[in-house]
Specification:
The chain is of the alpha/beta class. Helix content is 28%, strand content 22%. Strands 6-5-4-3-2-1-14 form a seven-stranded mixed beta sheet. Strands 7-8-9-10-11-12-13 form a seven-stranded mixed beta sheet.
């Protein structure tokens, strides 16, 4: 009899009750659930933490010291979309960790293209908070010196990049070939990939915010790392999750008490237990929900925590760097 993803998640929880689950063992579960042919298109998780990474700057708490001691670093939330057979590569959000994140793309074709200063066939941006676009800076002439690259974002995000430095210089030099999209419309990117931006409510200091849906030859993926509230969204998150094969969703905080000295209402995100309550029926029906964009204060970031075990027990997942999801 063939084991299912849910069987493996249940096994992970059972192991947790007897002993702490090692990151290597959990990685094995992830590989089982995302096995794919080497030549088939896939999404590659490049990072899973909130914008400021893990450890965060100036943090010397036990949780950040644990992160420093990890053999596998944590990076800010980002994806790569990889088409090995076609030799095409896309980046979803450019984080401050971009230099080390790109090392996770171990395709020989990607490294050859990077050496030619044209690593990406396109870049997709969600919004203008530091963890999602600040990495563009090192793609400019002080760093990679990237060749002209289609950059997909909203019209407001494109306006922000055009009229603020150093991004404006990258636009005028042609490195960022801005391609504004309309929320809700599918865009044909190439013969294997379609993309659709969905506006979401999220404090809009510099730009609006979108989640991205990516449709490949075999699966559709939702990438939504930031939202203020599921209830404030004009769409039904349950219906959106039902419409895709895999949903990577905002998991910034597990509880409202995580950030002492700050009002959680000033940094609104849906709490992980609430997200699980909202989407439990979808997961029970077999839909795959994977959490990402995890703040350094969120205990679910650690595989051996009770919170991470509870996420797995309920059939949800927490992404990890290097996770592959077929497209």
């Amino acid at each position: 009899m063939t084991a299912t993803r849910r069987d493996f998640l249940a096994a992970a929880v059972g192991a947790t009750t007897a002993a702490l689950v090692s990151p290597d063992r959990l990685a094995a579960y992830a590989r089982f659930s995302t096995a794919t042919s080497r030549d088939e298109p896939y999404a590659l998780v490049l990072g899973i933490t909130q914008d400021a990474g893990m450890p965060q700057v100036g943090c010397y708490a036990e949780r950040c010291d644990r992160a420093r001691a990890r053999s596998a670093p944590r990076f800010a939330a980002s994806l790569a979309l990889v088409q090995p057979d076609a030799g095409r590569y896309y980046l979803v959000d450019a984080t401050p960790d971009i230099t080390r994140q790109l090392d996770l793309i171990d395709e020989p074709g990607f490294r050859e293209r990077a050496g030619q200063r044209r690593p990406f066939d396109g870049i997709f941006l969600t919004h203008a908070h530091i963890g999602h676009y600040a990495g563009l800076a090192v793609l400019g002439k002080e760093g990679l010196g990237m060749a002209p690259t289609p950059t997909y974002c909203t019209a407001r995000m494109a306006d922000y990049l055009t009229n603020n430095g150093p991004w404006g210089l990258m636009v005028s030099e042609g490195r960022l070939d801005l391609r504004p999209v309309v929320s809700g419309e599918w865009n044909r990117i190439d013969d294997q990939l379609q993309a659709r931006a969905l506006l979401v409510p999220h404090h809009p200091e510099y730009s609006d915010t979108v989640g991205w849906m990516f449709r490949g030859p075999t699966q559709t993926l939702l990438y939504l790392p930031d939202i203020d509230s599921w209830e404030r969204w004009e769409l039904s998150v349950e219906e959106v999750v039902e419409s895709v094969d895999v949903a990577l969703l905002d998991a910034s905080f597990y509880s409202a008490s995580e950030v002492p000295g700050r009002n959680i209402e000033d940094i609104p995100h849906p709490l992980v237990p609430h997200s699980m309550d909202v989407l439990q029926n979808r997961v029970d029906a077999g839909d795959r929900v994977v959490f990402t964009h995890v703040n350094n204060t969120n205990p679910a970031l650690f595989e051996d925590s009770p919170e991470a075990a509870e996420v797995r027990r309920r059939g949800f997942e927490i992404a990890t760097e290097g996770l592959r999801i077929p497209l």
